[in-house]
Design goal:
The protein is of the alpha/beta class. About 45% of the residues lie in helices and about 15% in strands. The protein has 28 helices and 22 strands. The strands form six sheets. The chain has an eight-stranded parallel beta sheet. Strands 17-19-20-21-22 form a five-stranded parallel beta sheet. A three-stranded mixed beta sheet has the order 13-16-18. Strand 20, helix 25 and strand 21 (about 675-680) form a beta-alpha-beta unit. Helix 9 packs parallel to helix 10 (about 260-265). The radius of gyration is 26 Å and the shape is globular. About 55% of the residues are buried.
C-alpha cells in the first residue's frame, strides 16, 4: 500500500523515555545520596542534566513534542501521590521535614516506618508504589515537580507535553490504607480528587502547557459500568473549564473496549490508543463509535514494550486507515519507552546483522519519526527506509537462529503425561517428609544472598583478565562457604548456596541456552534504582549442557543440611526477556520448559532433594482482559509442570512468586502442582495467605515475613506476629518461614540481623505450638 499524505504534518511524539542515562547515572547519584556521598543539590543537578539530555536526544531524532513529568527519582505513581497530597500519616513528618527524604521514606521505608506496598504496573515488570487511601483522605494539589520540569523543557526551546497518571487509573491502582476496611473502594474519592487535578492542570496551563496527557491504562482492563461512569464524570469535569490546556487521554497495553465510547464522547481534545496490542480491535471499535471527528488521535504503532524492529509497511497501512477516523493523526510508541533499553547501537558484542533486528528507545524514536514523515509526505519520501526495513525483516525471518528442527521435533512430541507427577501430592508429601526430616515451620530463604562489592569486583577482574577462571572460581567457592556457614550458624533448615556466580536470575540462564542473546548495556528499570538487563529471546531454545549442577553440588558437599537447587521458571524466562514475536508464546514457553526439565533431572541425579523453580512473573504476564486468561494460564501452568514433573516423589519441588496481586490466579497456582510455594506477603499483611485459605490450597506455603525491598530490619516480634497471622490461614504442618524475595539487593549487615530475627520468630512460634499441643 502507498499511504496517502496526511492533510497536516503528523507530529512525532513519545509518552516517556528511559530515566537512567547511558551509564545509569541516575541510579548512581540516588544510591550515592542514600549513602551520604552525594548532596541533594548534586542529585538534582544530575537529574536536570539527564532530562536535558533526553529531550535533546528526542529532538535530534525528530520528535516534535517531548514529554515532561515522566522523569522520576523512584516511581511516577509515587510522584502522583505527592502531587495530590496523598501522603500516608506515618510519612507526613518525614515529608514535612525534608521533601526528598520523605519521598524516599515512602518508597523504601525507614527502620521505624514501613514503606508503601509495591506491586507490578499492569502486565509489565515495572513496580509501582501503591497509593494508600481511605474515607478520611484529604487531597491537596502540589504541582511543583510537574511545573518545574515543564518550565525546564520550554526554556530549552522544546515543544513539551506534561504527562500525568490519570485520576481514574490512580484511584483504581490504590488500596485501602492500613486500618481501613478492606472493602473500601478508593474510586469513591473521585469527586474529592478531581478539583486537585483541575488545579494541577491550571498550574501547567499557566506555566505554558498547550497539551497535557492524562494516562488511563486501567481503562483497557475489564471495567464495571460504575468504573466507566466514573471515567465519564471525570473527563466531563476536567474538560469543562475554558482556561485549561488541551487534554490528551492516553491508553495502552490493550484495547479500550467499552471505555472508548466514553472517552470519544468526553470534552477532551485528543485520545492516544495502542495499535500494537489489540490493534485490530481498537481499529474496529474506533470505526464503530464513528471515529474522533474534531479530535487528535495519537496512534501508538511502534511497540514500546519489545525490542524488535517495526514493520513499516504494516504500520503505514494502519496509519492510512486511521486518517479517515480523526481530525489529525500523530505517530507514537504504544506506551512509554521506559520499558525498553536506551540504545541498541551500544551493543557491540551482538552480530551487526542481528543488531539490525533490534530497536531500543533511540531506534524507536527514529521509527516514529520515519513513519510520521511517511504519513505526512507519502511513502515516496521514505523509499530507502522502507527498502532497508523489508531487508531486515526478511533477514530475521530466514535466519538459522530462529529455527532449530531438533527443538521443534522435541516440542512436537510432548504428551499430557509429560506434565504430570508420578504420584499425587498427598503421597508425595509423606515421602518428602521422611526423606528431608524437617521440623515444624521449616525456615529457608528464597535463593540469592547479597551481591557484595567483592563479587562484582571479581566479575570485573575476570572480564578484564586480571584474574583467570580458576582464580574467579575460588572466589565463588569462598562466598558459597561463607553463605552456608552463616545459614548453619543461624539455624536455617533448608539452605541455599547464595547464587554468587549469577548476574541475574534470567540472564544467567539465558547466557547458557541457545536461542538467547545477551546485552551489555540493555538496562531497564524494574523499580527504584533496581535495573535489569533483559536478554533477547531470538530463536529456538535448547540447553547444551548443565547450568547449575556444579555449584549446587559443591554447596551440598559442604553441609549435611539440604541445599536447594535454584532455577528460573519458563514463564519468567519469557516475561523478563524481550521475547520473540514470530510465534505463539505458548510454543516458546514449551521450548524453555523442556530445556529446564533437563536441568531439573540433572540436579536430582546429582543428589539435590529440594529444587525451586521460580515463577514470579506468572501473575504479571496474565492478560489484562479476562477473556484471554484461560488460554494464557493453560500454557503457563503446563510449561511449569513440564519443567518439574519428571522427578521422583521424594524430591520436593518449590516455586516462588512476589510483588503481584495473586488472588485472581490462586487456581493457577494450585494447578502448578508444586509441593511448596513461597510468596511475598509482608507489605500486604499476609493477604495472600488468606487468599490461599479461601481457595482451599492443599499444599505447603511460605508467605514472606520480611519485606526485602526495604532496608529496615524487622524485629523477631514483628516476624512472629506475621507468622501467627499466617497460621490463622495455613495449618502449621504446611507453613514455611521465609523472606518475601531473594536477598541480592540487600547488604550483609541487614541480612544477618533480619535472618537471625526470622529464625528466632520461627523458634518462638514453634515452641508455642508445641506447648499447646498443636
Amino acid at each position: 500500500m502507498t499511504a496517502k499524505p496526511a492533510t497536516t504534518a503528523a507530529r512525532a511524539t513519545v509518552y516517556g523515555y528511559p530515566r537512567q542515562g547511558q551509564n545509569r547515572e541516575l541510579k548512581k547519584a540516588i544510591e550515592g545520596y542514600w549513602k551520604g556521598r552525594v548532596t541533594a543539590d548534586a542529585l538534582r543537578q544530575t537529574a536536570a542534566g539527564l532530562r536535558r539530555s533526553n529531550w535533546q536526544q528526542l529532538a535530534d531524532a525528530g520528535i516534535t513534542e517531548v514529554p515532561t513529568g515522566d522523569f522520576s527519582y523512584y516511581d511516577h505513581v509515587l510522584d502522583t501521590s505527592v502531587m495530590v497530597g496523598a501522603v500516608p500519616e506515618r510519612h507526613r513528618a518525614a515529608v514535612e521535614a525534608d521533601a526528598l527524604d520523605g519521598f524516599f521514606a515512602m518508597a523504601r521505608g525507614t527502620q521505624d516506618v514501613a514503606p508503601l506496598e509495591m506491586t507490578k504496573w499492569f502486565d509489565t515488570n515495572y513496580h509501582y508504589l501503591v497509593p494508600e487511601l481511605g474515607p478520611d483522605t484529604v487531597f491537596t494539589a502540589d504541582s511543583t515537580k510537574q511545573v518545574a520540569e515543564l518550565t525546564q523543557a520550554l526554556a530549552l526551546g522544546h515543544t513539551a507535553r506534561p504527562v500525568l497518571v490519570g485520576p481514574v487509573t490512580y484511584l483504581l491502582l490504590a488500596k485501602p490504607a492500613p486500618g481501613v476496611a478492606a472493602d473500601f473502594q478508593p474510586l469513591t474519592l473521585l469527586d474529592r480528587l478531581l478539583p486537585v487535578y483541575a488545579q494541577v492542570l491550571a498550574d501547567l496551563h499557566a506555566a505554558g502547557a498547550e497539551w497535557v496527557q492524562l494516562d488511563e491504562p486501567a481503562l483497557v482492563q475489564d471495567r464495571t459500568p460504575a468504573d466507566l461512569n466514573a471515567a465519564a464524570r471525570a473527563y466531563r469535569e476536567l474538560g469543562a473549564p475554558t482556561d485549561r490546556p488541551k487534554l490528551l487521554v492516553a491508553s495502552y497495553f490493550d484495547r479500550l473496549g467499552d471505555a472508548l465510547q466514553v472517552l470519544a464522547a468526553a470534552p477532551v481534545e485528543g485520545l492516544a490508543l495502542d495499535f500494537t496490542e489489540g490493534a485490530a480491535a481498537n481499529l474496529a471499535d474506533l470505526a464503530a463509535v464513528g471515529g474522533l471527528p474534531g479530535k487528535r488521535l495519537v496512534a501508538g504503532v511502534v511497540n514500546g514494550r519489545n525490542i524488535w524492529i517495526n514493520d513499516y509497511q504494516k504500520s503505514l497501512t494502519t496509519l492510512g486507515t486511521l486518517l479517515g477516523l480523526a481530525d489529525r493523526v500523530d505517530v507514537a510508541a504504544s506506551c512509554s519507552l521506559l520499558h525498553v533499553p536506551l540504545d541498541a547501537n551500544a551493543e557491540r558484542d551482538i552480530d551487526p546483522q542481528i543488531r539490525r533486528w533490534l530497536a531500543f528507545a533511540r531506534q524507536k524514536t527514529t521509527e516514529i519519526t520515519t513513519l510520521a514523515r511517511g504519513l505526512a509526505q507519502g511513502t515516496d519520501a521514505i523509499t530507502a527506509e522502507l527498502a532497508a526495513n523489508r531487508a531486515d525483516l526478511a533477514s530475521r525471518a530466514g535466519s538459522a537462529i530462529t529455527h532449530d528442527p531438533a527443538v521443534r521435533a522435541r516440542t512436537g512430541a510432548v504428551t499430557d503425561a509429560d506434565g504430570r507427577r508420578s504420584q499425587p501430592y498427598a503421597r508425595r508429601t509423606v515421602a518428602q517428609r521422611a526423606h528431608l526430616g524437617l521440623p515444624l515451620l521449616p525456615t529457608t530463604t528464597i535463593g540469592s544472598f547479597p551481591q557484595t562489592n567483592e563479587l562484582r569486583t571479581a566479575r570485573a577482574d575476570l572480564r578484564a583478565g586480571r584474574i583467570d577462571a580458576a582464580g574467579y572460581e575460588e572466589r565463588i567457592k569462598d562466598e558459597i562457604r561463607e553463605v552456608l556457614s552463616f545459614q548453619e550458624k543461624t539455624g536455617i533448615d533448608v539452605l541455599v548456596h547464595g547464587e554468587p556466580e549469577r548476574n541475574d536470575m534470567v540472564q544467567y540462564f539465558a547466557e547458557q541456552l541457545t536461542g538467547y542473546l545477551a546485552t551489555q548495556h540493555g538496562w531497564v528499570q524494574s523499580y527504584g534504582t533496581r535495573y535489569v538487563r533483559p536478554p533477547v529471546l531470538a530463536g529456538d531454545i535448547s540447553r547444551p549442557e548443565p547450568m547449575t549442577v556444579r555449584w549446587t553440588s559443591y554447596a551440598q558437599s559442604q553441609t549435611t543440611k539440604p541445599v536447594k537447587g535454584m532455577l528460573t521458571g519458563p514463564v519468567t524466562m519469557l516475561a523478563w526477556s524481550f521475547v520473540r514475536d514470530d510465534q505463539p508464546l505458548g510454543d516458546t514457553a514449551r521450548q524453555v520448559a523442556l530445556a529446564l526439565r533437563d536441568e531439573v533431572g540433572d540436579l536430582e541425579a546429582a543428589g539435590t532433594s529440594v529444587i525451586q523453580v521460580d515463577e514470579p512473573a506468572l501473575r504479571e504476564t496474565l492478560p489484562l482482559r479476562a477473556a484471554d486468561h484461560a488460554e494464557y494460564l493453560a500454557w503457563a501452568t503446563e510449561s511449569f509442570r513440564l519443567t518439574t514433573s519428571g522427578v521422583r516423589p521424594d524430591t520436593q519441588i518449590h516455586t516462588h512468586m512476589c510483588y503481584a496481586e495473586f488472588g485472581d490466579i490462586v487456581q493457577a497456582i494450585d494447578d502448578l502442582d508444586a509441593d511448596v510455594i513461597s510468596l511475598e506477603a509482608a507489605r500486604s499483611h499476609m493477604q495472600v495467605a488468606d487468599e490461599l485459605a479461601e481457595h482451599g490450597y492443599p499444599r505447603e506455603a511460605g508467605p514472606g515475613v520480611w519485606d526485602i525491598h526495604s532496608p529496615r530490619v524487622p524485629s523477631a516480634e514483628e516476624a512472629a506476629a506475621l507468622l501467627r497471622m499466617g497460621l490463622r490461614a495455613i495449618p502449621a504442618e504446611r507453613l514455611w518461614v521465609n523472606p518475601d524475595c531473594g536477598l541480592k539487593t540487600r547488604g550483609w549487615t541487614e541480612t544477618r540481623a533480619s535472618l537471625e530475627n526470622l529464625v528466632a520468630a520461627a523458634h518462638e512460634v514453634r515452641e508455642d505450638l508445641t506447648a499447646d499441643g498443636s
